[in-house]
Task: inverse folding
């Protein structure tokens, strides 16, 4: 049973560019959440997708957008990249409802130069 | 807005010693998670605490939850070098996990 998979694992982009990160949830999970983890800090919630809609959003600008597909996989898009967007981006999948555990993927390390 | 405070932020301890990491949070939460993170790696789930008074143990780690005090603890018993990592607590509320700043644990021989 594959767990949560993210691609790519590493990425280098230039300021002003756009990036797309991808996540496939654990088998049987229907909810995907994205987190940003800057170096030396705890992860911060970006948004959550369920039934192909954004269910909840954290305190991130509109440059951060996402999508969920019918097969529950998800994309995170970041436009007009800033140096401060350099971070580890983590995807977590879960099954909607109470008392379910969230499993994290291995993350995508984004470096903006 | 849910705020989470962990302490200590950094902990250096000798092998064989016991210690406790504290996690305080500011508002009601459905449940609380503890994660471990090794350098450059993702988050590994350690415990999910679902109710007041919940206690879970795995090996040398034991986690507890007091929802009235909005406090969770992660107790380390007879630490070994393999436990060196960063530990995060994360209450779940409003469809999101809110992470503390993490406790970086270093266990020395």
Result:
């Amino acid at each position: 049973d594959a767990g949560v998979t993210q691609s790519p694992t590493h990425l280098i982009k230039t300021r002003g560019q756009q990036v797309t990160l991808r996540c496939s949830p654990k088998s049987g999970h229907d909810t995907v959440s994205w987190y940003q983890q800057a170096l030396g800090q705890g992860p911060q919630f970006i948004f959550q997708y369920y039934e192909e809609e954004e269910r909840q959003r954290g305190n991130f600008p509109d440059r951060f957008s996402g999508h969920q597909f019918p097969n529950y996989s998800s994309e995170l898009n970041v436009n007009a990249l800033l140096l401060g967007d350099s971070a580890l981006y983590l995807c977590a999948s879960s099954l909607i409802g109470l008392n379910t555990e969230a499993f994290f993927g291995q993350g995508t390390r984004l470096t903006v130069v | 807005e849910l705020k989470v405070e962990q302490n200590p932020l950094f902990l250096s301890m000798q092998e064989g010693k016991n210690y406790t990491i504290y996690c305080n949070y500011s508002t009601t939460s459905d449940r609380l998670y503890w994660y471990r993170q090794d350098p450059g790696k993702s988050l590994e789930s350690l415990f999910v605490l679902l109710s007041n008074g919940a206690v879970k143990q795995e090996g040398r780690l034991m986690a507890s939850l007091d929802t009235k005090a909005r406090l969770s603890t992660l107790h380390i018993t007879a630490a070994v070098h393999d436990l060196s990592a960063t530990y995060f607590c994360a209450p779940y509320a409003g469809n999101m996990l809110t992470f503390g700043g993490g406790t970086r644990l270093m266990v020395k021989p």
Summary: DSSP finds no helices and eleven strands in chain A. Chain A has a mean pLDDT of 94. The interface with chain B takes residues 33, 35, 41-45, 48, 55-56, 58, 90, 92, 98-99, 101-107 of chain A (CB under 8 Å).
